[in-house]
Amino acid sequence: MKRLTTVRWYPYLFIMPSFLLLVALVIYPTFFVISNSFYFWNLQTSPTPLQFVGLKNFELVFTATPFLASLRNTLVLAFVGTAVEFWFGMAIALLLNVGVRGASIFRSLLIMPVTIAPVVTGFLFRYMYYREGGLVTWLLLQLGVPVSPRGLLGEESTALAAVLAADVWQWTPYAAILLYAGLLAIPDEVKEAARVDGASAWRMFWHITLPLVRPTAAIFIMLRFMQLFNMFDLVLVLTRGGPGTSSRTLAYNLYQEGLANYNIGIAAAMTVLIVLLVTLLINIYIRFAFKDWEW
After folding, report:
1. What is the pLDDT of residue 236?
2. Number of other CB atoms surrounding residue 154 within 10 Å
C-alpha cells in the first residue's frame, strides 16, 4: 500500500521543476507588479515601498509620462510592421515556390538577418542612416528624395519610419520562411484542379493559396504583433525614443520610468496597463482569426 502511494506521487515529482520555474518566472512577478502598482516606490528614496497610494500611480502614468504618445507609436509599429512584413514575406515565399533561378542559395541567405541580434541590427542601420556617408541616406539623395540635415533619425517625421524599416529588413525573411513552408503544404492536386477549371493566377492566390496558408499566416501575425508591441532594442539603439517622443514605444517608456528614473510604482502600474491592453487585443484577434479552427 505504501509503495502504491509513493508511485502515485511520481507524476507530481516530475512536473515539480516546471511548476517551480513557472512560479519564479510568471506567478511571483505578476503578483509583485500588481501589488506594487498601488504603492509609492522610488528606489532613489527607499529600497522598499513607502505608502499605499491607491490608483494614483495609474493616474501618473497618463499625466507624468508620455504614455499616450508611446501607445500611438507602438500601435503604428505593431499594425503597420506586421502588415508590411506579412505581405513582403508572402511575395518572397511565392517567388521561392514557383522555383526562380538560384532559389536554393537564396533560401540559405534568407535566414541570415533573423540570426542577427536586434541590437546589432540597430547599430548597422544607425551607421547607414548617418547624414554624411550613410548608405541609406546616399541612396535617397541619389533618387532625389530630400533628407534633413539632422538625418532620418533626427527628424520627428521620419524617426519612427526609420526604426520600422530596420525591423522590416530583419524580420521579413522570418515571414517568408514560415509562409513558404505553408505553401509547400498545399496539395498539388488542389492547384492542378484549379488550373483545369481555368482559374487565373490571381484567383488561385485569393481563393486557394491564401485560404490554405491561413493557419500559418494567423500564427505569424499573432507572434509578430506581440513582438512589435514590445519593441525595445531598436528604439534604444537608434533613437532612444526621440526626437522628443516621436519614436518612443511603450517598452522604452517602461524602461525609462523603471530603470532610468527608478519609479517602480509608476512602472508597475504601466506594466499592468500594457498587459491588459495586449491581452485585450490578442483575444479580439484570436476570436476572429481562429473562430473556425478545430482544436
Report:
1. 93
2. 17
